[in-house]
Design goal:
By secondary structure, this protein is α+β, with helices and mostly antiparallel strands. It folds into 4 domains: 96 residues, Uridine Diphospho-n-acetylenolpyruvylglucosamine Reductase, domain 2 (2-Layer Sandwich), CATH 3.30.43.10; 118 residues, Uridine Diphospho-n-acetylenolpyruvylglucosamine Reductase, domain 3 (2-Layer Sandwich), CATH 3.30.465.10; 96 residues, Alpha-Beta Plaits (2-Layer Sandwich), CATH 3.30.70.3450; 105 residues, GMP Synthetase, Chain A, domain 3, CATH 3.30.300.330. It is 35% helix and 22% strand. It has 16 helices and 18 strands. The strands form 4 sheets. It has a 7-stranded antiparallel β-sheet with strand order 15-12-14-13-17-18-16, with helices on both faces. Helix 1 packs antiparallel against helix 4 and helix 14 packs antiparallel against helix 15. The radius of gyration is 23 Å and the shape is globular. The two termini are 26 Å apart.
């Protein structure tokens, strides 16, 4: 429990209306969108809640809050809009949750240098709409764009659906403003590129609130594209589609959307246009009209050489219109199902083995009724895989089956040389498997950095970093 003295001092710093303590006021900030938390809430067995929620409206107020919790040794959990899906938000009554959603101002848009500065709590879609009014784009389109914040993008090292051309969030961050665990403010990033020692911005990108609180973000922008067109192909085999992707990327072409669906997902997602037994490769091409035309012509040739055949390009606009429509977890629980998506990545030489092993190992979990995959982010060196699984069982068994499916995906990916997290972050569900990517020495190094930045361990304890 938080002490009355701390709550009194927080109210003095922020005002009574921005320090929330009742069950009703903190209810929607008890956890993020992790399936396991929602399953427990649906059952009525989830009992944890933060001791209080504070809603600062400025960086100075965040500093004031952090200084108070640092003085008392109180744990603090930064919170955006709660769209994370890996259990990064799981406070108990001894912790203070800092809700940044009131820090929602667009500070500046620079049309000459093509940068924009946002407070960390700015809604992602609002940020994109603000720059779009000036003919610009951030180019970052996660599925959660209307449900996430700019600060959350940074804290989870997010990737958007147009990343193949525009990059992931780490490619867009120009500078960061961060409140450290002692209340000190740092501003990191002053120029388009620097050789000023290690890039300290990366200490906070992907840190999921364990190193400090991101309060401001400056992102590099793009001009809105002159032209966009779609190309969609049937893939006779998974290997044929992956080979086409590899050749397209390694030839230097960068269609911003590159998505390949296995035969099961193609049938489920695009049934009117699918061919039984075949997968589908969907691409958007955008930019200057001349470059788009040249890219489409080259991609057509490469796809044909890999044995792909043209599908109806209307699949592209259909995907664009419906890409963010997903059922709620509760709708599945009511049917006796638990579902989730797990994104990993791997080099071109490993990805087929990862795919085969995951389908076999998850499919062997008792109760699993479906496991499928698509890829959604391509690179010169490899590609991601985005697995979906569904399992049916008595409500009392869903949690065990869920964790068994996650274990199977993590272990199969690591066994075949892949990375266990592509863009959803680590949270609590992946924390036991972080060693697969970092190694024992890397995890120890991460703990050392954490101890140096946050010696009292007050920033989002229990998240991201494995216990010794």
């Amino acid at each position: 429990m938080l002490t009355d003295d701390l709550l009194t001092r927080l109210r003095e710093a922020l005002g009574d209306d921005r320090v929330l303590t009742s069950d009703e006021d903190v209810d929607d900030r008890r956890h993020d969108y992790w399936v396991l938390s929602h399953l427990q809430s649906w059952r009525g067995t989830f009992e944890d809640r933060p001791g209080a929620v504070v809603r600062p409206c400025s960086t100075a107020e965040v500093q004031a809050v952090v200084r108070l919790v640092a003085e008392t040794g109180t744990a603090v959990v930064p919170f955006g809009l709660g769209s994370g899906v890996c259990g990064g938000i799981l406070p108990d009554r001894s912790m203070l949750l800092v809700d940044l959603s009131s820090m929602n101002r667009v500070r500046n848009i620079d049309e000459v240098n093509l940068v924009a500065t946002f407070e960390a709590g700015v809604n992602g879609l609002a940020a994109e709409e603000a720059v779009a009014e000036l003919g610009l784009t951030i180019g970052h389109w996660p599925q959660s764009i209307a449900l996430s914040t700019v600060g959350g993008w940074v804290s989870t090292r997010a990737a958007g659906q147009f990343s193949t051309a525009y990059g992931n969030i780490e490619d867009m961050v120009y500078s960061l403003e961060v409140v450290l665990p002692d209340g000190t403010l740092v501003n990191l990033g002053r120029a388009p590129r620097a050789a000023a020692g290690p890039d300290l911005r990366h200490t906070f990108m992907g840190a999921e609130g364990t190193m400090g609180i991101v309060t401001g973000v400056t992102l590099a922008l793009h001009r809105q594209p002159e032209k966009r067109t779609w190309r969609v192909f049937h893939t006779p085999t998974l290997a044929a589609g992956l080979d086409a992707q590899r050749q397209i990327m390694q030839a230097g072409w960068k269609p911003p959307v590159v998505r390949q669906y296995d035969a099961h997902e193609a049938r489920r997602t695009f049934k009117p246009w699918s061919v039984k037994g075949q997968g589908m490769l969907l691409m958007a091409h955008e930019g200057p009209a001349g470059r788009v035309d040249a890219e489409v012509a080259a991609v057509d040739v490469l796809a044909s050489s890999c044995g792909l055949t043209r599908a109806d390009d209307e699949v592209g606009p259909h995907w664009m219109e419906n890409r963010n429509h997903v059922p709620s977890w509760g709708e599945f629980f009511e049917q006796g199902l638990v579902v989730d998506t797990i994104e990993v990545s791997g080099p071109w030489t490993a990805v087929e083995n990862i795919y085969d092993a995951v389908l076999a190992d998850v499919g062997a979990v008792d109760g699993v009724v479906a496991v499928t995959a698509h890829s959604s982010h391509a690179y010169r060196t490899g590609v991601n895989l985005y697995f979906s699984f569904a399992a049916a069982a008595a409500a009392t068994d869903l949690e065990g089956i869920y964790l068994a499916c996650w274990h199977a995906v993590m272990e199969a990916t690591a066994r075949h040389g892949g990375g266990v997290a592509h863009h959803h972050g680590i949270g609590r569900v992946r924390r036991p498997y972080l060693v697969h990517d970092l190694g024992e020495a890397g995890v120890a190094l991460l703990r050392t950095i954490k101890s140096a930045v946050d010696p009292r361990g007050i920033m989002n304890p229990g998240n991201l970093i494995p216990d010794p």
